[in-house]
Amino acid sequence: MNAGWPVELHEGEVVLRPIRRRDQHEWQEVSRRNRDWLQPWEATVPPGPAGQASAPRPTYRQMVRFLRGEAAHGRMLPFVVLHKGRMVGQLTVGGITWGSMCAANIGYWIDEAVAGQGIMPTAVALSVDHCFRTLGLHRIEVCIRPENRPSRRVVEKLGFRSEGIRPRYLHIDGDWRDHLVYALTAEEVPEGMLERRRSLSSGHGPGN
Asked: Which of 16, 81, 95, 165 pairs with 67 at a CA distance of 20 to 30 A?
């Protein structure tokens, strides 16, 4: 079982909490309204062998069932992002690996209506601190398409290192796409990511 789950993480008006089956209506409404905004960055399933059709996209309930199962086994932390009590996005800590690696990756999306308001940098900071300080992970990766400048700004603002490019790394929007790799280890943020975020927001850091 996952000792760091379920959990709710809070910073001001930003909250991360586990995704729930009863979120279906609100989640689908936000997703539908942001379809054009999100489609270029959405993961897709490649065709099967010999050009066989891709598997159909899972339903909302199937997605939640899968995410909850992975969370129960300590492999994932599937959050929704709330701002002022309203769902505005999703953040998933995935690929949690223990042993000699102690690492995970983070993926996220946000409602275009509130993009650029500092919500996602705060959400990422909350999740990183939970991974490092509560779970005891050592390394976090975020892989982003080079063209996705808003998403890149989130991690660059928080001080993630760019480690180069992974060619044709993930199947996104119907094809294999290159991704930039950003990473951070626990030693690089001894003060905590949220404290770094607060310093940046107050103007005491290199940028906000």
From this structure: 165
